[in-house]
Structure to design on (476 residues):
RNA sequence: GGCCCGUUCGUCUAGCGGCCUAGGACACUGCCCUCUCAAGGCAGAGACCACCGGUUCGAAUCCGGUACGGGCUACCA
């Protein structure tokens, strides 16, 4: 039987980086097994829908380089792939369960349920549905259900246990008495997650369920639904959570959590995938640089960890720099270009690429490193122009001399400028680094940057001379 | 509170009974390279493998308990 796996985000906002990790693992497995990857939208909570969320899911995953086979826009033999379009399916199945006695309509109001919970809490009891509607005669229940607003609850056995053999966590067993009669169908006719996930996974012939660790506690509920339908339970694997630096589930307060944020901050999808894959999985060797294709062939569900992994921005940054350096110059140019203002001359920008590729960890940093070439509005403080142990007046004079050398540099190319500045250092009796410091500060407005003589030549003779002059004036 | 899960350097991790006086990577420190910053190279510091007990000739690796952390506990997913 060929493998069919799915990822099932809720359209409650833009794509969370944790969902991406889960999706990635499903993707690795599907592609490796030459199976089918399915995107299903779980929008059964009508209150939490966010406009445009589906677009954002599509954008985010596409950008990551993940492709899938069946989904809302791709179609497929098991659609529809949006749960809100499958309501009749869930309702029919819920009815069947009521018919077979495995579930029952419940007419308790939300107010009563709240009240009940409050009392249970006050008595320090476990909060759970008390089963009041369980004892209503089936016939009466059916009559009332036709007219009254109600939910459908699963009749959970009082005792016994239920267990799963999780591919990551091993065998886990739950006592049934701890599980309440969960709601399967809400009063608005929508299914709960617990019902929809089981029905859809079954109907869509999902062969392996890989999902986040936070679903582990509700797994017995799902098993009970499988049992009620008499369906076979596919193998499950729960994946450890991605945590914030404080050890709690990664959330907004930890900083960026959405793919689109990382994209906007200049991260590469290659780096994000590589980094993300390594939170919760390791190949068992000391290798750690992997492309998507490498991950597809190397990933093993048995190697997935149990413990959650903390988010480490520094490590992500490292992978990002590494993947930036792996890009060829033309490709890197294209990516940097997307972050540069339109009015910047692309030929000049392209020329900077070989000089900055080893100096950036994000694409956004590239922009900052070359902006001096595109705007004349640069810092001109003594701090970036006057090297330590030198007087402003003396530096201003040196800048003047540098100007002369640059003006008469012939040819006006990097080696000539380099030679000129070195000659100046000798003439002044300064260390070469001090001359560079002053000239770099004057010309780029910064104390750091790529090759100074390349910078000067790229800037152009006239602009370089202007800047030397302005810097000299600024510091005296 | 109840149920469930987890615990190897600050962080991501290798390890699945002897190869471990615990290896790699990020971050950190020093040196080299060098016009600065990076990148790169080399070196270093950093984990009594949460703790306690047991099994065994031998345990980071198996078992039990404890502690701490986390998740779930909705007509959310």
């Amino acid at each position: 039987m060929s493998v069919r796996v799915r990822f099932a985000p809720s359209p409650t906002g833009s794509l969370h980086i944790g969902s991406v990790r889960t999706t990635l693992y499903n993707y690795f497995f599907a592609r490796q097994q030459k199976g089918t990857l399915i995107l299903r939208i779980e929008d059964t909570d009508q209150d939490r829908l966010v406009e445009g969320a589906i677009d954002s899911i599509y954008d985010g995953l596409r950008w990551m380089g993940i492709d899938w086979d069946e989904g809302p826009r791709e179609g497929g033999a098991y659609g529809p792939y949006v749960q809100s379009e499958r309501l009749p399916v869930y309702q029919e199945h819920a009815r069947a369960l009521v018919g077979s006695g495995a579930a029952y309509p419940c007419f308790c109001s939300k107010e009563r349920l709240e009240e009940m919970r409050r009392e249970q809490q006050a008595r320090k009891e476990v909060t759970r549905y008390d089963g009041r509607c369980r004892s209503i005669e089936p016939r009466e229940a059916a009559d009332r259900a036709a007219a009254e607003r109600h939910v459908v609850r699963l009749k959970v056995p009082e005792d016994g246990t239920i267990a799963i053999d999780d591919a990551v966590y091993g065998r886990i067993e739950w006592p049934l008495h701890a599980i309440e009669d969960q709601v399967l169908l809400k009063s608005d006719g929508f299914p709960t997650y617990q019902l929809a996930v089981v029905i859809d996974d079954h109907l869509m012939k999902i062969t392996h369920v890989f999902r986040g660790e936070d679903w582990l506690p509700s797994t017995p509920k799902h098993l009970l639904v499988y049992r009620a339908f008499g369906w076979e339970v596919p193998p499950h694997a729960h994946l450890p959570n991605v945590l914030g630096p404080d050890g709690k589930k990664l959330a907004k307060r930890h900083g960026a959590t959405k793919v689109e944020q990382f994209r906007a901050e200049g991260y590469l999808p290659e780096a994000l995938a590589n980094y993300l894959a390594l939170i919760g999985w390791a190949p068992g060797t000391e290798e750690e640089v992997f492309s998507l294709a490498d991950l597809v062939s190397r990933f093993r569900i048995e190697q997935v960890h149990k413990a959650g992994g903390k988010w480490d921005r520094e490590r992500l940054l490292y992978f990002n720099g590494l993947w930036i350096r792996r890009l060829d110059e033309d490709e890197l140019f294209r990516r940097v270009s997307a972050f540069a203002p339109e009015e910047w001359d692309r030929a000049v920008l392209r020329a900077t690429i070989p000089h900055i590729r080893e100096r950036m960890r994000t694409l956004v940093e590239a922009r900052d490193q070359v902006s001096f070439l595109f705007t004349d509005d640069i810092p001109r403080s003594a701090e970036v122009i006057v090297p330590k142990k030198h007087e402003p007046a003396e530096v201003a004079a040196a800048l003047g001399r540098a100007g002369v050398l640059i003006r008469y540099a012939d040819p006006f190319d990097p080696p000539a400028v380099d030679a000129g500045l070195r000659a100046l250092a000798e003439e002044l009796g300064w260390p070469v680094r001090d001359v560079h410091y002053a000239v770099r500060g004057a010309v780029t407005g910064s104390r750091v940057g790529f090759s100074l003589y390349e910078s000067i030549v790229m800037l152009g003779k006239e602009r370089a001379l202007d800047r030397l002059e302005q810097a000299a004036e600024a510091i005296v």
User: Anything to note?
Assistant: Chain A has a mean pLDDT of 94.
